Hints:
Layout: H1 2-7, H2 16-20, E1 41-45, H3 51-57, E2 62-67, E3 79-82, H4 85-99
Parallel strand pairs: 1-2, 2-3
Amino acid sequence: MERLAELLHAELGCTRPLVEAGWLDYAHQVGQTGAAVAPKLLVSIGVSGAIQHLAGIGGAETVVAINEDAAAIFGVADYVVVGDAVEVVTELIVQLEARD
């Protein structure tokens, strides 16, 4: 995810469970108990779309949601990719790196 963010000139955000697991610091938490964000593009990877998280992404202009099964976040997404998040992100990285 860090490489994808780097290629997109983006910042990483996450859900509360990732903060609780120690993957990212609280400063990266997006949602009702974290930060509200309003990017031009928000790529949601493997996020179910709990109401608390959706409250934090309401300002995003365009939402791309990647998840392996139907998820609540699909209801707010402008674009939906159904697939394994790791496989989809790996391919995105390959395609973005090929452009450089």
